[in-house]
């Protein structure tokens, strides 16, 4: 499971514990610093009402003993061993990079899932290339990956599956397109830094609609994959005339896979608390997190149990129409 990381106050290093508590909630249908949180260009969008809030967990590290005890006694924060937040041997900077990578991958999956839901075809776009990789000199950001060893691909997961079937040192031929020009490039696969037996292409990928539409997620200082489902829902809401929320305040969390599966996350009890305090009427929770989600008082907020993107859409529709919602208490 994953936990979002919101930078906390840095204090002199003392106890090997971290505090997890409610973090900010952000309406994915709104804007931050003058930019839409979910920005869509090249397609007709529709006015939305209500709210679709993504939720976060605030993680505080580098606490003194008195601060850790104080948070344990006076707040609902969870005090956990530091290694559950920052694995042993991993620096804070490494965790920040890993969380950011997970966030980018979550954005790509959110776009693919929303496009699949709307029956809009997508293709694979290169987001970045590692400088130390063999791909650095031949693959460029914004290249579209059309095929791997002659096999057509349309989603990042398909590229990853074909690469993982190989071994470090193997060569792979990529069919690429940029500005209407198609070319082939052969790359020697490297070794994954965490496991030398795993092949590494050295390319980060995202997804974009094939018809010229562009989806951008303008949210900074948040890491981890748990906003995926809410991003997908925001894209769908903006691209459909029907109002997905029915004008209600909906919050939620959950990873999203490219097949639409909603996955569990960490710290959901804190996200429930933050959403209740913010005034949310309905909370979309991964089914695998239901036990933890109902461990805190949620007041009048309904906690829906969802396993897929379709479940989330159905829960909002049922709630808006006054029908029974499948909840975590069932």
Fold and architecture overview:
The chain is of the alpha+beta class and about 325 residues long. The chain has two domains: about 15-120 and about 210-320, Ribosomal Protein S5, domain 2 (2-Layer Sandwich), CATH 3.30.230; about 120-210, Pdz3 Domain, CATH 2.30.42.10. About 25% of the residues lie in helices and about 30% in strands. It has seven helices and 20 strands. The chain has helices at about 65-75, 90-115, 155-165, 230-240, 270-280, 290-295, 310-320; strands at about 15-25, 30, 35, 40, 50-60, 80, 120-130, 145-150, 150, 170-180, 180-190, 190, 195-200, 205-210, 215, 250, 255, 260-265, 280-285, 300-305. The strands form six sheets. A six-stranded mixed beta sheet has the order 6-1-5-16-19-20.
> With helices defined by DSSP (H or I, 4 residues minimum), what is the helix count?
7
Sequence stretches where pLDDT stays below 50 over 5 or more residues: 5-12
CATH class of the largest domain: Alpha Beta
Instruction: Tell me the number of structural domains.
Output: 2
Radius of gyration: 21 Å
The CATH architecture term of the largest domain is 2-Layer Sandwich
SSE layout:
Elements: E1 17-27, E2 31-32, E3 35-36, E4 38-41, E5 51-60, H1 65-74, E6 78-81, H2 92-117, E7 122-129, E8 144-148, E9 151-152, H3 156-164, E10 171-178, E11 181-188, E12 190-192, E13 195-200, E14 203-209, E15 214-217, H4 228-239, E16 249-252, E17 255-256, E18 262-263, H5 268-278, E19 282-286, H6 290-293, E20 302-306, H7 309-320
Parallel strand pairs: 5-16, 16-19, 19-20
Antiparallel strand pairs: 1-5, 1-6, 2-3, 4-15, 7-8, 7-14, 8-9, 8-10, 10-11, 12-13, 17-18
Helix pairs in contact: 2-4
């Amino acid at each position: 499971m994953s936990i979002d990381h919101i930078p906390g106050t840095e204090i002199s290093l003392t106890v090997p514990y971290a505090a997890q508590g409610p973090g900010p909630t952000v309406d994915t249908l709104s804007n931050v610093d003058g930019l839409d949180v979910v920005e869509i260009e090249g397609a007709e969008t529709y006015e939305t009402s209500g709210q679709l809030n993504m939720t976060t967990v605030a993680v505080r590290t580098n606490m003194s003993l008195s601060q850790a005890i104080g948070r344990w006694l006076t707040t609902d924060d969870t005090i956990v061993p530091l290694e559950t937040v920052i694995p042993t041997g991993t620096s804070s900077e490494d965790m920040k990079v890993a969380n950011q990578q997970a966030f980018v991958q979550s954005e790509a999956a959110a776009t693919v899932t929303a496009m699949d839901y709307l029956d809009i075809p997508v293709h694979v776009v290169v987001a970045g290339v590692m400088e130390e990789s063999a791909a650095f000199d031949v693959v460029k950001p914004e290249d579209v990956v059309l095929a791997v060893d002659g096999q057509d691909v349309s989603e990042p997961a398909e590229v990853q599956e074909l690469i993982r079937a190989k071994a470090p040192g193997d060569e792979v031929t990529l069919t690429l397109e940029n500005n209407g020009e198609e070319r082939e490039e052969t790359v020697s696969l490297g070794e994954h830094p965490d496991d030398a037996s795993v092949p590494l292409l050295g390319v980060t990928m995202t997804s974009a609609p094939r018809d010229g539409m562009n989806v951008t997620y303008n949210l900074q200082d948040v890491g981890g994959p748990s906003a995926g489902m809410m991003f997908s829902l925001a894209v769908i809401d903006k691209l459909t005339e029907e109002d997905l929320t029915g004008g209600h305040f909906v919050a939620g969390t959950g990873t999203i896979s490219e097949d639409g599966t909603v996955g569990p996350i960490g710290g959901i009890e804190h996200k429930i608390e933050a959403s209740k305090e913010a005034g949310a009427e309905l909370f979309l929770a991964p089914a695998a997190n239901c036990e933890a989600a109902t461990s805190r008082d949620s007041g009048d907020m309904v906690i829906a149990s969802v396993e897929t993107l379709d479940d989330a859409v159905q829960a909002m529709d049922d709630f808006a129409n006054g029908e029974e919602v499948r909840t975590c208490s069932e």
